[in-house]
Amino acid sequence: QVQLVESGGGLAQPGGSLRLSCTSYKFTLENYMIGWFRQAPGKEREGVSCISSSDSLTNFADSVNDRFIISRDNAKNAVYLQINNLKYEDTAIYFCATACRSDLVGSWGQGTQVTVSS
Which residues sit opposite 114 in a β-bridge? Predict the structure, then answer.
């Protein structure tokens, strides 16, 4: 089981930006597809973006197109989710996983909380 650690969340204002990080202390992430997911209060977990092991990119939700940018830094063994022009509805716990579909994820990490508030 690949264990991932999410970080970078916090409190931000609408229109602001955050960069979330997904890292692993044991596994080399460039060998894996990495998906970012989020779960808002009272809602189902949803996939927002995914990067394959060959670096093809997918954004799943129309609401995040042009605002969410997924990228890798193999030297830092990290996958990032840049969130621009934050909206209130981006408030959620964000998770990363070695899958692009939530039903293929065996276990979830702690996630990182993003709160958008003025």
Answer: 10, 92
Q: Which two tokens stand for residue 104?
A: 């293929």
What tokens were used for 37? 């997911």
Mean pLDDT of 7-26: 97
3-state helix, strand, coil in the chain (%, to 5): 15, 40, 45
Parallel/antiparallel/unpaired status of strands 92-97 and 5-7: unpaired
Please give the DSSP secondary-structure letter assigned to residue 106. S
Arithmetic mean of pLDDT, 21-26: 95
Provide the strand spans (E) within 13-104: 18-23, 34-39, 46-51, 57-59, 68-73, 78-83, 92-97
Q: How far apart are the first and last CA of the chain?
A: 39
Q: How far apart are CA 67 and CA 19, in angstroms?
A: 12
Whether pLDDT at 57 is above 80: no
Q: In this structure, what token pair is assigned to residue 71?
A: 């990228």
Q: Which pLDDT does position 79 carry in this prediction?
A: 96
- The string of pLDDT tens digits covering residues 61-86 is 777 878 999 999 999 999 999 999 99
